[in-house]
């Protein structure tokens, strides 16, 4: 006998119907948020030139060559990402298709963060977290970069959600946890810090259950076994790069001993990391400003924008931590995932293994937006809406800077190479310190290209020797100046060129200054913006 349909007898407005309508609204809102994330991540995906870090990915992917087992799993730049880039690179080297891998993972992270926020709090917090991630300039930056950080953030979200379900809800998810952790580590080694954070969170729970402890240990044994090939590649890198020889305590070492001098790590890096993960690199001082002038002066000039933006996100996070503490749900996980990866990145910098960078702690981004989402939705609806709107508006200002202002975009080496390719003559030579290899990726002209490496610009005599050795037989020299602080912070190279050879022409592109020198004439002839620093905004030539 068929059973009567209970739904037919339910009165309008019953709790079950209200719940169904709420779930439907949530699904539609989440769909709109995911669509917004997709628009922001695919918009102008190929507009900006590749930059130096992306060249590392192209080289690691071994595009156009055979990619064997050792080339894949000994790749400490991220074998999974390199495999996908290698496959696409066999078809095209255009920026947009190659970056689409990052964009896809960036979009896919949004619904996972919604699930994480819902698990730790409720659907409203999940939606708020998903919205904050969708408009996150930090997430958009790495979703539009040919690097593995967008993939890393995705698998960090997956493994953290699975860890919560296993340890707190006891709802299964072992395969998801193992897969997310392994693929995260194979995307970027920074995921290892996340695995440590999960174990910190798990410790108290594992002590109370022998069965859970056994399964947790087995899962990590599988993870370690699957990591072995890449682990061997990591050991090889340590040996070949002589990492052990440069390990030192940054606080007691001379600047010359450190990878990035005094900027290898400073205490100011911690609040900067929080701000960067909240609003990206395009709100307040640009990265070029932070390198070519005092960071304190750059911050002071941008304080009217930076301070309220930082306070808004800090307020949301503090409210979120208070909510998690009051409900006793998720506070330990949030703190572990936020603190351990950040401490790991700081430790590597203090040991002079890798300079500190917010992206090395990017596995904490999903938890950051979840905590902020919990904080926003802990307020009454009017105040929650206001705080959410304020944070989103600051994010949109940052995104507008990123998309439309040249001083916040990646260095436009592509346009510089195209210009020289069009204007070169027989007998020309190109000097491209710092960005030389990237320049050669784009440049298809006939001019010889040479570089000046770190250490070769340590004195005026070394600069003169390097240049004078390369210019015999050439009539004109193109100087491609970009990120010069990495090789020549004293600006000895441009000083020598302008004093020794006359300037025929100058051009500017985003983050790139291009000058053409007549090797047969002495001294500066052209006077266009003498003394202007490299970080100055580009003119229309870079559009």
Explain this structure to me?
- A 5-stranded mixed beta sheet has the order 2-1-3-5-4, with helices on both faces.
- It has helices at 6-9, 15-42, 52-60, 69-73, 79-89, 95-120, 123-134, 137-143, 149-167, 174-187, 191-207, 210-240, 243-246, 269-279, 287-292, 295-327, 331-350, 365-377, 381-404, 413-423, 436-442, 460-470, 492-500; strands at 428-431, 448-450, 476-481, 502-509, 512-518.
- The radius of gyration is 26 Å and the shape is globular.
- The longest helix is centred in the middle third of the chain and has 33 residues, at 295-327.
- Helix 6 (95-120) packs antiparallel against helix 7 (123-134), helix 10 (174-187) packs parallel to helix 12 (210-240) and helix 16 crosses helix 18 (365-377).
- A hairpin with a 2-residue loop joins strand 4 and strand 5 (512-518).
- The chain is mainly alpha-helical and 543 residues long.
- The protein is built from 23 helices and 5 strands.
């Amino acid at each position: 006998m068929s059973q009567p349909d209970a739904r037919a007898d339910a009165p309008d407005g019953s709790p079950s119907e209200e719940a169904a309508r709420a779930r439907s609204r949530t699904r539609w809102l989440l769909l709109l948020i995911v669509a917004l994330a997709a628009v922001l991540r695919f918009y102008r995906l190929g507009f900006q030139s590749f930059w130096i870090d992306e060249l590392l990915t192209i080289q690691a992917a071994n595009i156009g060559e055979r990619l064997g087992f050792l080339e894949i799993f000994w790749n400490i730049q991220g074998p999974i990402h390199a495999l996908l880039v290698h496959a696409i690179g066999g078809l095209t080297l255009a920026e947009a298709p190659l970056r689409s891998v990052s964009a896809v993972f960036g979009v896919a992270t949004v619904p996972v963060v919604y699930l994480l926020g819902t698990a730790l709090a409720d659907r409203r917090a999940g939606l708020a977290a998903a919205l904050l991630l969708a408009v996150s300039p930090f997430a958009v930056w790495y979703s539009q970069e040919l690097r593995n950080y967008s993939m890393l953030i995705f698998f960090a979200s997956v493994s953290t959600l699975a860890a919560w379900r296993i340890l707190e809800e006891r709802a299964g998810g072992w395969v998801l946890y193992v897969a997310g952790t392994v693929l995260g580590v194979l995307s970027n080694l920074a995921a290892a810090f996340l695995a440590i954070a999960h174990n910190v969170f798990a410790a108290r729970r594992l002590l109370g259950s022998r069965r859970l402890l056994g399964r947790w240990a087995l899962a990590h044994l599988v993870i370690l076994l699957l990591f072995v090939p890449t682990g061997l590649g990591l050991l090889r890198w340590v040996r070949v790069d002589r990492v052990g020889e440069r390990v030192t305590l940054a606080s007691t070492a001379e600047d010359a001993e450190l990878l990035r001098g005094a900027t290898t790590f400073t205490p100011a890096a911690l609040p900067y990391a929080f701000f960067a993960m909240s609003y990206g690199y395009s709100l307040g001082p640009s990265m070029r400003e932070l390198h070519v002038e005092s960071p304190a002066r750059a911050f002071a000039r941008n304080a009217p924008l930076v301070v309220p933006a930082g306070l808004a996100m800090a307020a949301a996070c503090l409210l979120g931590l208070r909510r998690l503490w009051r409900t006793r749900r998720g506070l330990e996980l949030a703190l572990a995932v936020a603190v351990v990866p950040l401490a790991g990145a700081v430790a590597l910098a203090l040991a002079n293994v890798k300079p500190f960078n917010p992206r090395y702690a990017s596995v904490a981004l999903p938890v950051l937006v979840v905590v902020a989402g919990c904080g926003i939705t802990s307020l009454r609806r009017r105040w929650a809406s206001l705080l959410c709107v304020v944070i989103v508006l600051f994010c949109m200002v940052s995104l507008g800077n990123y998309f439309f202002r040249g001083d916040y975009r990646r260095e436009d080496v592509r346009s510089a190479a195209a210009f020289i390719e069009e204007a070169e003559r027989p007998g020309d030579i190109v000097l491209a310190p710092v960005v030389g290899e990237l320049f050669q990726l784009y440049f298809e002209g006939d001019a010889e290209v040479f570089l000046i490496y770190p250490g070769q610009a340590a004195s005026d005599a070394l600069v003169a020797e390097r240049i004078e050795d390369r210019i015999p037989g050439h009539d004109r020299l193109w100087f491609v100046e970009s990120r010069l602080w990495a090789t020549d912070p004293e600006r000895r190279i441009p000083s020598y060129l302008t004093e020794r050879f006359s300037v025929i022409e100058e051009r500017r592109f985003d983050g790139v200054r291009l000058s053409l020198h007549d090797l047969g004439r002495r001294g500066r002839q052209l006077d266009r913006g003498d003394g202007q620093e490299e970080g100055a905004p580009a003119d229309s030539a870079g559009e």
